[in-house]
Amino acid sequence: MHNSTSEPKRLLAFLSLAAGMMTLPGIAAAKPIADSYWLTEDGSLALAIGACEAGSAVSCGLIAGLPGAATDAELARYRSDLCWLPVLWDLKWDAAKMRWAGGKILDPETGDISDLDVVATGPNLELRVFEDGKRSFPTLILRPVETFKEACK
Known about the structure:
Layout: H1 7-21, E1 36-40, E2 46-51, E3 58-65, H2 73-77, H3 79-82, E4 86-94, E5 99-106, E6 113-121, E7 124-131, E8 134-135, E9 140-145
Antiparallel strand pairs: 1-2, 1-9, 2-3, 3-4, 4-5, 5-6, 6-7, 7-8, 7-9
C-alpha cells in the first residue's frame, strides 16, 4: 500500500543524497576550482583562481599578488604589468580524467601560451603544462593561502 505521507521525506532524502554526491570528484558533471588564493611553490606569485564568471563551471586565474617583489627588483619593476594579469583560463572539470583539463596558461615572462591540466593533490594544485600534446615543463605546484604579502591593489 502506498503511503503518501512518506513521499516528501523520501524525496528530501534522495535530493540530499544527490546534492552530496555532486560534491564528489568524478560525480559532478562540471565544477570550477573553488574560489581561493594560491601561492606558487617559490612564493613569488599569488593567484586568485575560481569560476571565470558567476555560476560558470569554467575556471580562470589572475595574478593577485607579488610576494616575491619584496626581494626581487625585476618582479617589483613589472608590478603594474603583472597585477591582475589573466594567466589561466578555460579549465573545465573532466570527470573521466579526474582533473580540470583543456585549459591554457600564459607565461608572463615570454608571452607564450601553453595547454594546461590541473590536478588536486591533497590541499595543493598541480599545474601540468603541455606543448604539442606532450608535457613540456616540470609540474608547477600551487598551495592554498588565505593571506599573502604584496597584494595587487
